[in-house]
Amino acid sequence: MSGEIARQVGLTARAGVKGALALPGVVSDAATGLLNTGLDATVGEGNGFRFQRVGAAADSLMSAAGVPEPKNATERVVQDVAAGMAGGTSGAAAGQVAARLAQSAGAPVAEAVGNALAAAPGMQVLSGGAGAGSAGVTRESGGGAVAQTVAGLAGAMAPTTVPFAARAAVRGAIRGGEAGRSEMAGRIKTFEDATGTTPTMGQATSSRAIQAAETGLSNVVGGSGIMIRRGEAQAEAMQRSVQELTDALAPNATGTDAGAAIAKGVNAFKDNVKTVQQRLYTDLDKFIPAATPMGVGRTQVVLESLNDGIPGAPNISNFFKNARIGSIESALGQDLELARRAQAPAGMSSTGATTLPGQLPYEAVQKLRSLVGREISENSLMSDVPRSKWRALYAALSDDLGDAANTAGPQARQSWERANRYTRTSIERLEQLESVVNKDAPEKIFRAATTGLAEGGTQISRVMKSMPVENRREVTAAVLQRLGRAKPGQQNELGDAFSSETFLTNLSAMSPAARRALFGSSGYPGLQERVNQLGAVANMRREGSKVFSNPSGTARQGAMIGWAAGLGTALATGNAAAIGAALAAPVVTNTAARLLASPTRVRAAAEVNQLNAAAGPVSAAAAAAGAASYDERKATNLRRIREMREGRR
Which letter does DSSP use for residue 293 in this model? Predict the structure, then answer.
């Protein structure tokens, strides 16, 4: 026994030495091969001295040193396998050393080569042993050098190519080609970015067959629990994502708070309009002195038309005339008369400016216009003058002021146009917002602002543009929170149950323009994209499997009863096969459900098919080993020929 142990140690040492010399032998054998070729051409093939290959030389030296040699086919093949594994180890180690040296020397190309040689060392060891063993078995079976080389290559590549082919086949069956892989990866990314969870295999692939399998598993013993828990986890993750977004926008947002924010934001917009108006008209004052006389003919004409009587019915006309407008018309006439009487004898006013009949100072007309504008902005249903009459008067005063600015020169005209344009657009927007904010309760304001989102985004866009960012966020948070609120029949006692189905229904009913207004102008970076991703997740859940759409559970209950009845019948009859089948069914469905719901399996199915990194070094080593085997066989044949010639002599 001691002798056999020593023999096996020696054989192992022989294999280790040959494996360690395999990589440097590739370089050495290439050089000596060229020299041997030159000698063949010079003295003739089979004549004279030839350089031995490193492996053969090492064998000769170890045999001379008394290292045990393999005696039979089994030992020779085992020796080949051990040497191949040792060669894989030495090759990977040499690659690591080369990569470090190249990195230190600043040689990126050499470093990349070293890293490639050092890739997947475990697979290199396995492949080295498999390739050498395949070549050895072929040799012992009588195969020639070419057959040994082919067998060695096939054996060395098998550990990398067979799993690769198997994975590619399975992935192809699940997702199809590259287009299917890309779509699957996109769905997984959308799911993970939106909720932090992973879809099931059916949701990720959109394969009807896999979705049908998931639906079936959700209704049978062993698989239903896993699929239901997966669906509940997805729903909770989606609700959590929506809640995180609303908390980031405005914590604890409600419709009442959002309505108050709209009212506050619109009031702030009004104040801002007044401030800007004052600044713009102050700029105009620089070009028109306050006492400059100006005509108000347009204003007089409009005032007269606003209280125009009915021809032929003067008494009835009095019931349709507005007393306040009539008083303003009368007072304006009196002020014009006072201005005419106050003229100097030479036709000059006290300020030195010529005053003509039907003229008032510029400052007086401007203030009158401001007062009329205030009446428009503060007008209510109880006002004694309809807003339409105030608007007509405001427009006439504006035209008179425009004539005065035009007379004052181009700078005054330009300043006037800028101020008037801003005022006109601001008043138009305020009038448009009136139907929203003119409510008696904040929640009614919110409801009015978010009405008609399916038809377009005009109303909500006006509201959002008129508010500061913080008020916009409150409105957006309140809308977002309501998108996924479950219907009354599916609500809990707190009224905060979330439904991805309701979220998708409400979001899909919202027009693109309304989405942009609500989620694109909130000041929260990437909010619109996140909301769209949540919609895509809800859509995948809807299409993926019925178990994720609030199932009734009828089919699941029927399957449970059927399985229990089948098991009971099998036990009653004592049929071992039937009992085994009934007990195995939940195990099979449980395993299948775990595979389809596993995040690791789903991500793996979407990966790109890649050959193991060890394939390159392994194939090169196998080819070199095949070449060495061919040369050794050739050298052996030449040696025998030479010995035969010498024996004849």
Answer: E
